C-alpha cells in the first residue's frame, strides 16, 4: 500500500516542473459577436471537493492538501454544467499543485467544457502545496483582461476584469473573491468601485462572502447603481442553502432575462446563473 502511494506521489512530483500557463491565448477564440444576450455563471468550486455536510469539512479536509482519485470525476461533472454558459467566473481553483495532481484546474475545466478562452489568476502561491486561484472562462474574445490584487490585511484575494465590445463603451465584467471580514470587504469594494466608476455597462460576479443588501447599502457599492438577484438567492451551504454569498450584480442598462441559483451541489457553494440582454442599441455599435 505504501509503495503504491509513494509511487503515485513520485510521479506527481515529476510533473510539477511542467510550466503552467495562466492564459489560453486568444488566437482561436471567436470575436464577441452581436448576440442578443449572454449567459453568465459564477461558481466557487472548492478545488473540486464535493462537500455535502458540515462534518465533511473535517473528514475531507485532507483533500485540500493531497490528491484524491475522485477529484477529476467532480471536475468533469462541473465542466458539464459550465458547457452551457458563455462566461464563467470560478473561485477556489488550484493552478497546479500536489492536491490537484499538478493540473491547472482552470485550464482543465475550460477544455473539458469546450470553452476556448481561459485565464487563471494566482492569488496565493504556496508552491507545491497549493496554488489558490480565480478563473475566467469565455466563449468570446475579450478586448482585454487584467488582474488585480485586492487590498486586505491578509494578502491572497483578487479580481479579474474582462472588457468586451467597443473600446469607447465596453461591457465590463469583474470577477472576484472577497475576504471574509467586513473591513477588508469595504476596502476591496472601494478599490473595485474606483475601477468601474467610468463604465456604463458593468457586471460584478463572484463569491463576495456577504448578502447583497449589505453589499449595496453598507459598502462603496452603494454608489454603483447595481441590480442584485432576489434576496432569496441562497447559495451556501450547498446541501442546505441559507446564505446568499455568491452574486451577479449588473448595471440597470443590462436587462436580466433570467437568474437562478443552480441546483448543482458539487461544492460547498451552489453556482449562480444569469442571462442578460445587451443594452438597446448596443449591438449596432459593432
UniProtKB/TrEMBL annotation:
List, alphabetically, the Gene3D superfamilies matched: Endonuclease/exonuclease/phosphatase
Which positions, given as ranges, span the membrane? none
Provide a GO biological process annotation: GPI anchor biosynthetic process
Q: Tell me the superkingdom of the source.
A: Bacteria
Q: Which keywords, in A-to-Z order, does the entry hold?
A: Endonuclease, Exonuclease, Hydrolase, Nuclease
Write one Gene Ontology MF term.
Answer: endonuclease activity
Q: Which Pfam families match?
A: Exo_endo_phos (PF03372)
- On whether Hydrolase is a keyword of this UniProt record, the answer is yes
Has the keyword Cytoplasm been applied to this entry? no
Q: Which residues form the Endonuclease/exonuclease/phosphatase domain?
A: 41-269
Q: Which GO terms describe its cellular component?
A: membrane
Classification via InterPro entries: Endo/exonu/phosph_ase_sf (IPR036691), Endo/exonuclease/phosphatase (IPR005135), GPI-anchor_lipid_remodeler (IPR051916)
Q: What is this protein called?
A: Metal-dependent hydrolase, endonuclease/exonuclease/phosphatase family
Q: Which organism is it from?
A: Marinobacter persicus
Amino acid at each position: 500500500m505504501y509503495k503504491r502511494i509513494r509511487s503515485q506521489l513520485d510521479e506527481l512530483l515529476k510533473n510539477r516542473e511542467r510550466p503552467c500557463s495562466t492564459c489560453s491565448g486568444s488566437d482561436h477564440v471567436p470575436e464577441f459577436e452581436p448576440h442578443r444576450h449572454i449567459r453568465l455563471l459564477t461558481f466557487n468550486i472548492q478545488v473540486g471537493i464535493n462537500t455535502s455536510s458540515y462534518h465533511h469539512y473535517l473528514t475531507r479536509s485532507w483533500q485540500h492538501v493531497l490528491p484524491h482519485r475522485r477529484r477529476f470525476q467532480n471536475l468533469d461533472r462541473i465542466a458539464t454544467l459550465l458547457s452551457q454558459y458563455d462566461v464563467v467566473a470560478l473561485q477556489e481553483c488550484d493552478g497546479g499543485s500536489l492536491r490537484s495532481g499538478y493540473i491547472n484546474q482552470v485550464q482543465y475545466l475550460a477544455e473539458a467544457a469546450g470553452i476556448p478562452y481561459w485565464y487563471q489568476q494566482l492569488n496565493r502561491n504556496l508552491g507545491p502545496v497549493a496554488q489558490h486561484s480565480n478563473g475566467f472562462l469565455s466563449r468570446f474574445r475579450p478586448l482585454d483582461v487584467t488582474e488585480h490584487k485586492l487590498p486586505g490585511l491578509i494578502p491572497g484575494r483578487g479580481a479579474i476584469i474582462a472588457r468586451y465590445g467597443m473600446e469607447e463603451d465596453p461591457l465590463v465584467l469583474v470577477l472576484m473573491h472577497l475576504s471574509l471580514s467586513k473591513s477588508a470587504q469595504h476596502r476591496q469594494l472601494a478599490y473595485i468601485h474606483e475601477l468601474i466608476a467610468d463604465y456604463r455597462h458593468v457586471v460584478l460576479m463572484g463569491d463576495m462572502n456577504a448578502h447583497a443588501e449589505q453589499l449595496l447599502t453598507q459598502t462603496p457599492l452603494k454608489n454603483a447603481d447595481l441590480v442584485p438577484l432576489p434576496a432569496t438567492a441562497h447559495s451556501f451551504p450547498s446541501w442546505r442553502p441559507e446564505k446568499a454569498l455568491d452574486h451577479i450584480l449588473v448595471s440597470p442598462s443590462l436587462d436580466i432575462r433570467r437568474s437562478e441559483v443552480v441546483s448543482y451541489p458539487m461544492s460547498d457553494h451552489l453556482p449562480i446563473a444569469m442571462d442578460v440582454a445587451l443594452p438597446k442599441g448596443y449591438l449596432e455599435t459593432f
